[in-house]
Design goal:
six-stranded mixed β-sheet, 41% helix, globular, 195 residues, single chain
Length: 195
C-alpha cells in the first residue's frame, strides 16, 4: 500500500508541474497578444555540433543544416503563433543557414532580415560586445506594432539572457534597466514551450 501511495504522490507532483508549465505558457501567449515584445528563438533541430572546418557563411552546403525533423519542427512553431493570431512585424535571423531556414519555415511573413549581430558567437571572437550591443539597439528601438522575433544560437541567447534555452523554447525578453559587470543585458519575462 505504501508503494502505491508513493506512486500516486509522484504522479500528482508530475501533473502539477505540467499544469504549472501549461499555465505559464498560456500567460506568455496572452502577454505577446498585444504586441511590442521581442521573442528569442534558437534554430530548430540541426544534428551535430558546430560547423565543418570548410564552413562558408554564403554556402549552406558547407554548414550544419536543419534536418527534415527541424524543418517540420519550425513549421509547427509558426503554426502555433498563427493559430493564436500573434502578430509578428519584424523577423530577424543570424546569417547561418540553420537559423535563416528556421525563421523562414516558421514565419511566412514578414520577410526574414539577416542581422549580423545575431551571428554565432564563437570562441575567440573579438566582436562579442559589438554583437550584444547590436541586438540591444534593435530591441530598444522596437515599439511594434506586433512583436519581433530573433532567431539565433543557444550560445548567443545565453550571453544575452544567462539562460541556456531548450530547442523550441521561445524567450520573451526586455532590456534590464541596470546591468552589473559581466551580467547578461536582457531579462526573460516569460517563455513559451513550442515543442
Amino acid at each position: 500500500m505504501t508503494r502505491r501511495w508513493a506512486m500516486v504522490a509522484v504522479f500528482t507532483a508530475f501533473m502539477a508541474v505540467r499544469v504549472d508549465a501549461a499555465s505559464a505558457t498560456e500567460a506568455a501567449w496572452a502577454l505577446i497578444s498585444g504586441g511590442g515584445y521581442t521573442i528569442l528563438l534558437t534554430n530548430a533541430d540541426a544534428p551535430g555540433i558546430g560547423d565543418p572546418p570548410y564552413f562558408e557563411l554564403d554556402d549552406c552546403s558547407t554548414q550544419r543544416n536543419l534536418s527534415d525533423r527541424g524543418r517540420q519542427q519550425s513549421r509547427r512553431w509558426g503554426v502555433k503563433f498563427a493559430t493564436r493570431s500573434i502578430s509578428i512585424s519584424r523577423l530577424y535571423s543570424s546569417r547561418w543557414c540553420r537559423a535563416l531556414d528556421t525563421a523562414a519555415n516558421a514565419f511566412r511573413s514578414p520577410p526574414v532580415e539577416p542581422l549580423p549581430a545575431l551571428d554565432l558567437i564563437q570562441e575567440g571572437d573579438s566582436d562579442v560586445d559589438m554583437k550584444i550591443d547590436g541586438v540591444l539597439d534593435v530591441i530598444r528601438d522596437f515599439r511594434g506594432p506586433g512583436n519581433q522575433v530573433m532567431v539565433t544560437h543557444d550560445v548567443n541567447v545565453e550571453a544575452l539572457t544567462g539562460v541556456t534555452p531548450r530547442t523550441g523554447e521561445a524567450l520573451i525578453v526586455i532590456p534590464k534597466k541596470e546591468v552589473g559587470e559581466g551580467e547578461p543585458p536582457l531579462r526573460v519575462i516569460n517563455e513559451i514551450l513550442l515543442n
